[in-house]
Records
---
Amino acid sequence: MHIVVCIKQVPDSAQIRVHPVTNTIMRQGVPAIVNPYDLFALEEALRLKDKYGARVTVLCMGPPQAEAALRKAISFGADDAILVTDRAFAGSDTLATSFALASAIRKIQEDMPVDIVFAGKQTIDGDTAQVGPGIAKRMDLQLLTYVAKIADLDLNKREIVIHRRAEGGVQVLKTKLPCLITMLEGSNEMRFATMANMFRAARYPLKQWDKDAAGIEDVTKIGLKGSPTIVSKVFAPQPKSQRAEIIDCESREPKDLSVTLLAKMFTRYPNLAEEIGKNAA
Amino acid sequence: MSETTEQKKPAGRRKFELDPRLEKYKGVWVFVEHERGAAHSVSWELMGEGRKLADKLGVPLAGVVMGAPGLQTRRFCQEAFHYGADLCYLMEDPLLSDYRNQPFTKGLTDLVNTYQPEILLLGATTLGRDLAGSVATTLQTGLTADCTELNIDMENRSLAATRPTFGGSLLCTIVTLNYRPQMATVRPRVMSMPKKDETRNGTITEHPLGMIETDIVTKVLEYIPDNLAGKPQLPFADIIVSGGRGMKRPDNFQLIWDLAKVLGAEVGATRPVVQAGWVELDRQVGQSGKTVRPKLYIAAGISGAIQHRVGMEGSDVIIAINTDENAPIFDFATYGIVGNAMTILPALTEAFRQQLATRKVAV
Ligand SMILES: Cc1cc2nc3c(=O)[nH]c(=O)nc-3n(C[C@H](O)[C@H](O)[C@H](O)COP(=O)(O)OP(=O)(O)OC[C@H]3O[C@@H](n4cnc5c(N)ncnc54)[C@H](O)[C@@H]3O)c2cc1C
Ligand SMILES: Cc1cc2nc3c(=O)[nH]c(=O)nc-3n(C[C@H](O)[C@H](O)[C@H](O)COP(=O)(O)OP(=O)(O)OC[C@H]3O[C@@H](n4cnc5c(N)ncnc54)[C@H](O)[C@@H]3O)c2cc1C
């Protein structure tokens, strides 16, 4: 079995700061990490490898520094890693990104057919959850999103049964390979890297593909040209026009404050008293 | 590429000529999502927004209803009219009885190619995101995710979709100029529910799916409904009392529960409180938790960080209790009490209790 796991390198959002004057993201010094959601996809792929035997190839599109994300994946136990990197990809939206990744996966297939493609549920930066469905559509793979559990895999029949998180319940779906799975967070827990794999990751001869190596001929499908969406404006959230009315009484006793608050509130919002009455009943 | 907003070239207020082939695309569509016999409220929230967009453009608003044949789908069309649609596209087929990506993608794509809307909106639910991503790729058009504001840029009649980026610290407005339809998803509860007008009616256009079961690779073996009993339902609560790290200790959180009990309210919390295990994950309000729009939101010991704010600023009335008069929550709350939550909360609980008691007597 051959599994491809798509991982994206993202800035650690907990440490992102916005420049107060220019409203741009200050990336300097912000560490880059593997998109946390992608680790659930990678772990699930590695579990399938443990159970059924598989070759796990990790694929990332990004700047040359994104190599670190791929080495991290090797240290967890992935077999191969490919970094698709080219200035021509700059400005890609999800349509262009899924085009580039699908082309790269087709190239990977030339070596060994791919049975399952894994992706994260979404990223923590672009946060669209659109790339997985995009790749599936372009490659005509059965799409399984928000997968909480792989219940069964029959490699002879080439069938897979999964639990998919739906609105208000769980769908149990059976489909045929090849498929694309986006893994739900919390569906597993990433293993620790072994010493041997960490050594392997450090020495691993990472493959770097430019657009030609990734099999992309039509440059109008990638980068800004291949991206229908255009960011027209970036701005800070408007502070609400009115600041809170601060309730202040001379005595500042909690009881007085509370009574004053309710009196003011129910005068200004007469319906609210009604609503609360209904709700409490 | 790990795009950043600074890498993407801002388009600014550009003038442009729409490809003549695309000028035929007219009208605003809302995909009506339903599960187990009930329409998802996000569809009606979107219908309200869609109405405003359609009015600005001077075009009709349509609902798209796909499902198994039966009374239900007709009922959803009627509801769509009540919430503002002028017409509905109805696709009925037994193959559409459960959501599956393949037939829904084909059906919706066919409808778009046949009737050519300029804007297509879907809920950012597990279903909507699955379907929207597939349809946008098939149609090779732009899709903006998780928008918090939708508008029309009148200069070129294009959809200006605004969404938070980087955990809500910034907003960006995204346009899809020379592609149609312009697609966007919106999370549940981000937009307010429109008023229902039961006198409204509209026309229904039916269109066939044109597939047979053997065309569809994926089969639904089972649907296991969530056991909702006892689970908090914050997104639809009318009153929410939330506590933050300023409550200091888990046992102080009882004061939040006490007030909630008197008001018949749900209890909410900030992320640090959830992470500390004081309350369950389902109660987290904010960017990575639930979006809520209660009539009354009481926030005690909550600083008002942007990631919390985006989940609750749609509340009608916000009362904030905080010891720090400079806490950001006072920048957007309706009423503020600068003081210690541990003493204010019991007093507030008592004041509400008395107010409710006098109401009862009055009634
Ligand atoms: C603030 C901001 C807002 C944006 N808004 C939009 C928008 O509304 N619409 C739009 O079309 N584009 C948008 N983009 C562009 C979009 O983020 C990029 O196209 C990005 O390359 C992929 O989208 P994502 O990060 O949302 O990935 P998602 O679709 O959320 O990612 C899902 C999964 O796909 C895989 N994946 C995604 N990217 C890569 C990669 N580079 N290499 C390997 N695997 C990957 C991962 O497994 C990931 O978990 C936005 C970008 C930014 C910075
Ligand atoms: C990617 C990302 C996603 C996130 N998602 C969410 C999310 O979904 N929801 C969320 O809530 N947060 C989220 N956060 C965290 C968010 O940034 C804030 O850290 C969090 O909201 C702060 O919670 P808090 O207000 O309880 O705590 P604090 O910010 O520590 O505020 C405590 C407040 O209590 C006040 N206080 C102290 N003592 C008292 C007292 N005795 N009486 C009254 N007031 C008192 C203090 O003045 C202070 O204002 C996210 C962060 C990131 C990076």
---
Amino acid sequence: MNLNRIFNKYRTFPHGIHPLGHKELTAGKAIRRVAFAPEMVIPLSQHRGAPAVATVVPGQEVVRGEPIAEPGGFVSVPMHSPVTGSVKSIDALVPSAAGPKVRAIVIHTYEASTQEVLYDCPRDLESMTSEQLVQAVQDAGMVGLGGAAFPSHVKMLPPKGKKIDTLLVNGCECEPYLTCDHRIMLERADSLIRGIEMALRATGAGRAIIGVEDNKLDAVVHIRSRLPSGGRISVEAVETKYPQGAEKMLILALLKQEVPSGGIPADIGVAVYNVGTLAQLGDLVPESRGLIERVVTLSGPGIERPGNYLVPIGTPLRFLLGQARSRSDANEIIIGGPMMGMSVASLDVPVTKGVSGVVVLEPKDPDQRPRPIYPCIKCSDCLDACPVNLNPSMLGQLAQVREYGTMEQAYHLNDCFECGCCSYVCPSNIPLTQYFRIAKAINREAAVAAAH
Amino acid sequence: MALTSKPIEIRTSPHIRKAISVAQIMRNVVYALLPICAWSVYKFGLSALLLLLTTTVACALSESLFCWLSGRNNTVRDFSVIITGLLLGLTLPPGFPLWMAAVAGFMAIGLGKALFGGLGYNVMNPALVGRAFVQAAFPVAITTWTPAFVPGRFSEAIPSTLTTPFMTPPDATVWIQALAIDGFTGATPLALQKFEHISASTIDLLTGVLAGSAGESSALLVFLCGLYLALRGMMDWRIPAAVFTGTILTSLPFYLVSPEIYPSPQFMILSGGLMLGAMFMASDMVGSPLTPRGIWLYGFSIGFLTVMIRLFGGLTEGVMYAILIGNVLTPLIDSVTQPRVYGARRQEERP
Ligand code: SF4
Ligand code: SF4
């Protein structure tokens, strides 16, 4: 517990950390479009749930915005072509951010095309029923744009017997460097409000609260000034603290409620959406368009022209980094934020629906210095950082002696959501979060093996 | 694009770390201890300097020896052994024979640290283990107190300091009488209070112009040094806070009932090794609990035990044993105070 941080007037959750934000690099940069890459790669599984199923064949011509894959089940979404061009191949094994190679549709871009979205048809939202709205959301291929990439329509239909009464709109953006949601709140507040109203109707919730960290008070003021009368939607500032944007933490900060361990927010009548997701919905659904581009923050010391870019989904990183002039000595490229994002192994990885940022670090960055690992000195910093109140020190010691079962049964391993706070604070540089990821994977495998 | 020319690195998240490491924490603790050491050298002269050097060097050598014996990397450079050495030196009487101090240093590292597997694995505070060992082995030497601010203290060591190894030190009283300091009884403020019910003044305790071990000196200075660490986030302020609260809450009722016999809470806090113990030894991360409730419980127990030993035990000073007991209780405290995990059902909601 840090003596200096006892007072703060905004709501928050206990524990958490205060990493350097570095948001000043891009917070003032308006969203700009990037050029179309000559070749687009659209993985069929860029969301949680079943992969999409391709509906195009190699050689086929596609128009920008045209559906090119259909959902592979209820928890799945369709894909739309980000460019006008022709399908080059489908079964290519393309690298993904997570590591394994995945199936993807590769589209060759027509350079001469105007790249106008022709594939749309305006519709009247007022006359749509909530079922139709949910269907429209799935048709748009919407997933959580905050990073989780969970299909949006699924969250609108809570499990049987549960009812959603409150919608939380997550505008925290607690990851360092990322500013795409900040810009969206400033530049696309009306779309956001349209999206929120749509989500309120689709879920049947009575109210919506937008939670924004107090380092973005300009966004709070701006959205407040655009809010419709009626008072169903409100904006609340919350303390700037990582991981304030985690679903469970935001619920605790704004509603003083906890999601039961192992449960989902719908268990307590809550659905959480990212501001970027709802702003996109507000733009796409009235026009019956599909999700073909998103705002991505490109930042970090290794980028010469940091900024917030509107990037077509499927743009390979190599092309994107070339546009933002990545410096030649960049040595780590992170997809997402530096706390929970993944370093990519290949620059051929494309931007997918869940990519909110690309952060490039250089070797001379202080975070890249060698980190000698010491034994745990029981400083208890990790306990004071863990937002879900686990005991990472104990879990780490158990992981070192491979007591993965005990970690799960006695020390609540499965409540860890891998936020990285414990590793961040650990003065002994123990890779705690990584230990927990591995432990969970081993437990999962053991459970599968036991079931057979 | 130049990006292709160089290999890129793959790391696991989080990709950023707080800029504070174990070595840095340890280094800062050493910095925080230096003013205290300086003051005690100023107060007791050459003997205190030699004593601090001896314990530190003995600890560092022992650490190297044990690392070598167990085939581990030499860990002297992580500074934690320097802290142990300095703390140990500060808890000993200034005229403590150097050869005994070396034994204490060896024992602190061997028995208190290496035996458990080195930094992070020790159960008890190594400095206190070393001191407890010599307390048992050399009961006379460790209770022989010499006056502070002796003239000529910088040119000449206290005679007992340079005792030949394995010899009993010369009787200090002769030397003290030769100095002819009026009213020096060879008793620490705590002993005076305990046996004669004379409380030293608060100001004297704060500035530390009284007799005592090298580090039982200026409570104010120790407090400020501890505060520096707490403000830099390198020491858990809750531990000293809990120790003080425990001390006050335990000693206050006695004081209120009969102020002539029992010392006041402020005397309890400012006298003896309590300040040093609370700020630098009880708060030693390795031996203290991890859980928030555990930390408070641990601190309270140390405060409570200190007062109990001081008031009713055979010893005048109880901080050392109180902290050692606290250290030993730590695993137990931790296991009964595990925090409630987010979203876990509260006790009353369990079916
Ligand atoms: S990674 Fe897991 S254990 Fe570590 S702080 Fe986050 S939730 Fe807690
Ligand atoms: S932060 Fe690291 S060193 Fe400190 S208690 Fe946790 S695991 Fe141990």
